[in-house]
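tokens incoming
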């Protein structure tokens, strides 16, 4: 009788917790990028953030949305993908604007120096998605080029999915590719840190939020009985996040030894 008397409190409380967990799933994935976005805007320097993170998340979430048409999963996971795509486009827009502005300022300084010395300055060519140059893939000069690439990829894969939606093998493979791509989210940042032997410019807050968010997401997948692909994705992401945090600790406490030759301090900053 006592348990039945508490139903009026427990049922709404359970519903409230369920709504809170769903909201955390939808919007929690974008929270780690808020400090990185603010840092880039404040410093006008996007060198510490790998835009290939945006590429990985765009591909993963587009594939996840297409997977939903073949095998329905919980709506919060679908909305999470849509929100993440918009967030990555905003990050790309900011990074492109900052990079182009910095290149323009550097070019102006070169022109001014060349005018004083009466020298000729070579202007870097504009890079475009429609050039189809693999050497400059995802390094274009305009945000519109990134949008064109995303639209072209979505249209191509969407058409293939439409033709193969009745194939269970294709749908399951699509889901596996979606979560495997998302599991590789931190790899571009991990590689960049290793190549430069530094985490300068990378927001530690962002990585800490990655780790906590991925741990929560993995627990959500397991408790809600999401497809197995999602749980595997979450576990791999947590491992990569921990590896990046390990890099930050290692480079902070054991910085790499400087090169034996002497260089000007301004030239030592990682590109």
């Amino acid at each position: 009788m006592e348990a039945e008397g508490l139903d009026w409190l427990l049922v709404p409380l359970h519903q409230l917790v369920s709504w809170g967990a769903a909201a955390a799933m939808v919007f929690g994935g974008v929270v780690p990028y808020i400090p990185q976005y603010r840092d880039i805007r404040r410093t006008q320097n996007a060198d510490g953030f790998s835009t290939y993170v945006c590429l990985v998340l765009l591909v993963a979430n587009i594939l996840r949305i297409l997977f939903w048409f073949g095998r329905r999963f919980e709506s919060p996971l679908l909305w999470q993908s849509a929100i993440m795509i918009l967030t990555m486009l905003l990050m790309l827009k900011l990074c492109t604007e900052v990079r182009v502005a910095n290149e323009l300022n550097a070019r102006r300084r070169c022109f001014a120096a060349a005018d004083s010395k009466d020298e000729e300055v070579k202007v870097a060519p504009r890079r475009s998605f429609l050039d189809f140059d693999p050497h400059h893939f995802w390094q274009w000069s305009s945000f519109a080029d990134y949008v064109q690439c995303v639209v072209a990829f979505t249209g191509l894969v969407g058409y293939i999915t439409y033709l193969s939606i009745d194939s269970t093998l294709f749908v399951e493979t699509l889901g596996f590719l979606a979560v495997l791509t998302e599991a590789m989210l931190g790899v571009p940042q991990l590689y960049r840190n290793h190549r430069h032997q530094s985490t300068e410019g990378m927001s530690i807050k962002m990585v800490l939020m990655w780790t906590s968010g991925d741990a929560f997401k993995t627990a959500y997948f397991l408790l809600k009985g999401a497809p197995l692909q999602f749980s595997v994705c979450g576990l791999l992401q947590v491992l990569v996040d921990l590896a990046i945090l390990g890099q930050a600790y290692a480079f902070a406490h054991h910085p790499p030894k400087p090169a034996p030759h002497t260089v000007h301090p301004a030239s030592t900053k990682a590109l």
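note: The longest helix spans residues 75-117.
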